[in-house]
Design brief:
mainly alpha, two-stranded antiparallel ribbon, 21 helices, 4 strands, about 65% helix
Length: about 450
């Protein structure tokens, strides 16, 4: 039998792999950077990282010989297996077609596995790496979009629509855009291991990149989180501090966006169309809802009525617009309800409730207001998921789930010794560490 310290060392190896893989996933601007091509499918770099994370998490489960929340993992496994079986036997969908559709749910599968293991990564350490990854990802996305369009054209060669949106109309392609919400959370939490200038720089780069994507849902989410954080202040002093912080980042973001608008005519036209409606606010609603959304919503409703109880299974499109099959949805609830039926909604509901339970069980020694802000972000993301799928196919569900898991670890661990050494000179951090008080 291995000594106890050896067992802890092995656990830390798994945790390091999880942290590194998630950091790499967050640092990439989009998944079309690198492909592996097989006869039956083309696997993007994101999907390769999902599969590596699944392998590491399964190895960790086998090594620990236990899971924390086996019910969630077992329930989702049964739902997926039954859906694949029904699609291939009754629906006549090939196994290859079913698996191609299933890969859209790989982020949620990774997040479900994260709930099943005992994560020993400290909260501050994870926020540090996530902030650095957000800076790298946003800067790469901006650089490729504005200074290396030929590289972007090669990456998006498989999709003429994506090429037209990104290159002709000037919408930045940044798959990791929801990172801006987590960076904003980090700014308000102010972890000791991240210098304030680094946090502000991370938010400015993330916000500018998100603005360049013209994603109105995420921009409204940033505003909603700021207003919610101010409203949840425990006293007037904290409210004033958060208002001052919000004013500072708004001014810095406005200056950065103004500089970007002066240099890119496509972005000016895009802002005039998507945010100003060419001077007609009703045109924004007409374009965003009536033209772009309603046809999808009508087909969602028709398909849900036809297969509400058991779902239509994997491998069948969610909608067919202009003759093209669409296998993804803009609404997280629809993404679980259409293929998996009522059981899909049950799985999603249980998953969210487990996140809420973990947040509320965070140690009382954690910094004041952390759990409240994380709960606020979860509630806000559930609202945003009615227009932007953040929980089935988006990397955000992985980042947020790991954030919740690390929320349980508020004390420095062996894996964080270099962070203690690196920041122990700072008085604010020195007084927070046992044995370093003077």
């Amino acid at each position: 039998m291995l000594p106890q310290h050896a067992c802890h060392s092995e656990n830390h190896v798994f945790d390091r792999w999880i942290l590194w893989l998630v950091a790499i996933l967050a640092a990439l601007p989009f998944g079309e950077v690198f492909y592996l091509r097989f006869e039956f499918a083309t696997v993007s770099i994101f999907e390769q990282l999902y599969l590596l994370l699944i392998l590491v998490l399964m190895a960790k489960i086998i090594y620990e010989k236990r899971t924390k929340y086996p019910f969630v993992l077992l329930l989702f496994s049964l739902v997926v297996i039954s859906s694949v079986f029904l699609s291939s036997t009754i629906g006549g969908i090939s196994i290859a077609g079913t698996l191609r559709h299933l890969r859209f749910y790989l982020p949620f599968i990774v997040a479900t596995l994260l709930l099943a293991v005992n994560i020993k990564i400290s909260f501050d350490r994870y926020l540090h790496w996530l902030t650095i990854a957000a800076i790298i990802s946003s800067l790469l996305a901006l650089y490729i979009h504005h200074f290396a369009p030929e590289f972007l054209s090669n990456c998006l060669a498989v999709s003429e629509v994506a090429q037209d949106v990104a290159i002709v109309h000037g919408r930045l392609r940044w798959t990791n855009a929801p990172l801006v919400l987590l960076v904003l959370l980090c700014v308000f939490l102010r972890p000791r291991c991240i210098p304030r200038q680094t946090m502000l720089f991370a938010f400015i780069t993330s916000f500018v990149a998100t603005f360049n994507t013209s994603n109105r849902s995420l921009l409204l989410g940033c505003v909603g989180f700021f207003l919610g954080a101010v409203a949840m202040s425990v006293n007037s002093r904290q409210a004033f501090a958060r208002i001052a912080l919000g004013t500072t980042i708004v001014l810095l973001a406005a200056i950065s966006v103004s500089c970007l608008l002066q240099t890119d005519g496509r972005l000016r036209e895009l802002v005039d169309l998507r945010f100003l409606g060419h001077g007609d606010v009703s045109e924004i609603y007409e374009q965003a809802v009536t033209i772009n959304r309603v046809p999808h919503y009508e087909e969602y409703a028709e398909r849900i009525r036809a297969s509400f109880v058991v779902g239509q299974g994997l491998g069948r499109p969610f909608s067919v617009i202009t003759g093209q099959d669409v296998f993804i949805a803009d609404i997280s609830l629809v993404a679980f309800l259409l293929p998996f039926g009522i059981m899909g909604i049950v799985v999603f509901g249980v998953f969210v409730m487990k996140l809420v339970t973990l947040i509320r069980r965070a140690p009382t020694s954690s910094r004041a207001g952390t759990s409240s802000l994380v709960l606020l972000l979860l509630a806000l993301c559930l609202i945003l998921s009615l227009n932007l799928d953040l929980f089935s196919r988006n990397n955000f569900v992985i980042y947020f789930t790991l954030l919740v898991m690390t929320l349980q670890n508020q004390t420095p661990l062996d894996t964080d010794k270099r962070f203690e050494r690196r920041y122990a000179r700072a008085p604010s951090y020195r007084h927070s560490l046992p044995g370093l008080r003077t």
